[in-house]
Amino acid sequence: MTASYTVPTALPTPAEVPAASIGAPGFDRILEVRPGIRAEALLNVTGTLPFFDTHFPRRPILPGVLLTESMIALAVLAAGEPLLRLRAAEGLRFRRFVTPGDQVRITVETAGTGQDPAESRWKATARVGEATVAAVRTLRLVHGPVAEANGSTAANGLTAEAKS
Fold this sequence. Notes:
The protein contains two helices and six strands, in the order E-E-H-E-E-E-E-H. It is mostly beta strands. Strands 1-2-4-5-6-3 form a six-stranded antiparallel beta sheet, covered by helices on one side. A hairpin with a 2-residue loop joins strand 5 (119-128) and strand 6 (131-143).
């Protein structure tokens, strides 16, 4: 099965960007998108998200992987290329817990291109108020294969089990 995708000519409007939910990166509000340069968005962390029941239930904490996925999603939006996938995250630091009631301001800025011209590099920061809660020195994004419904990828045919 061959996957096809039409690259949009314009960036999605804020209404077209998915809201944050359990296990899916998203944003509650996009503040700025300067294609290829910078983007900024807000993520409101509510106490009603189901993963808080099991992720340290006595002191609920937003999982770092969800925060990181939101940074990656914003970098992909800023790049204007929906087929970009994460190759590497370098210099990832978590400095403070994100808890229910926090409003996270995520900012991504271009960090230029690497040695590979097909690679897009971004730096990302997540803040609650004036405090930096997480930062990534470099998000390296590349064009990746689109996963098919059966778990294989269009580029190499490997299944998820074979990769792990």
